Amino acid sequence: MDALLIHSGELVNVFLDDHPYPFKVNPQFKAWVPVTQVPNCWLLVDGVNKPKLWFYLPVDYWHNVEPLPTSFWTEEIDVIALPKADGIGSQLPAARGNIGYIGPVPERALGLGIAADKINPKGVIDYLHYYRAYKTDYELACMREAQKSAVNGHRAAYEAFQSGMSEFDINQAYLTATGHRDTDVPYSNIVALNEHASVLHYTKLDHRAPAEMRSFLLDAGAEYNGYAADLTRTWAAHRR
């Protein structure tokens, strides 16, 4: 295989509506560059030349447009503005028969002339998954920053619990402390009071606090440069 074409992903509209579901970037894309909020980006890696990042930069007054990145990592990547999502075809090498596609939209890869057997090839995916277990110093630093943010959130959530707040309000306290929106956390927060902790993936968030607070389980994380923290804690209520 001559190169990998790694796709950040695309927005998907809600059925019969004109607004999209929250965007979640391809994890294999954000492992290369800390671009987590921008769809329609492409990264070409051939192991010889400097990787190329086509960064989606439309002219758009309907939506927020992220500026072209300039950061600690952009010296290592050729960053190219991509004004139109469907303009990537004219930017790629003409010979694409031996380029692999890694991403969530196989039909887009087929439209670009990527061979079907080169779309998310199992051998490549397995290799990438295996070596994600090995973390560089940079990755470990990002994970530590995510942990610090999550710890701040857990402390704020505990204080909210002890003050008698509802699950919904406890979650709001957590998000405020971490600086996240509920669509930005790495997974849906589990904020479970009393018997709700017995539901493995409890994400309902009651708006009313129970008459008696007995226990609190919190499973909630945070993200930094695309790397996640995943913390779970359980507390008993203080008896008055």
Quick recap:
This protein is α/β, with parallel strands linked by helices and 240 residues long.
Provide a descriptive summary of the structure in words.
Helix content is 24%, strand content 20%. With 240 residues, it is α/β, with parallel strands linked by helices. The chain has 2 domains: 3-131, 3-Layer(aba) Sandwich (Creatine Amidinohydrolase, Chain A, domain 1); 137-236, Alpha-Beta Complex (Creatine Amidinohydrolase). A 5-stranded mixed beta sheet has the order 4-3-2-1-5, with no helix packed on it. The longest helix is centred in the middle third of the chain and has 26 residues, at 137-162. It is elongated, with a radius of gyration of 21 Å. The mean pLDDT is 96. It is an enzyme of class 3 (hydrolase). Its EC number is 3.4.13.9. Residues 1-130 form the Xaa-Pro dipeptidase N-terminal domain.
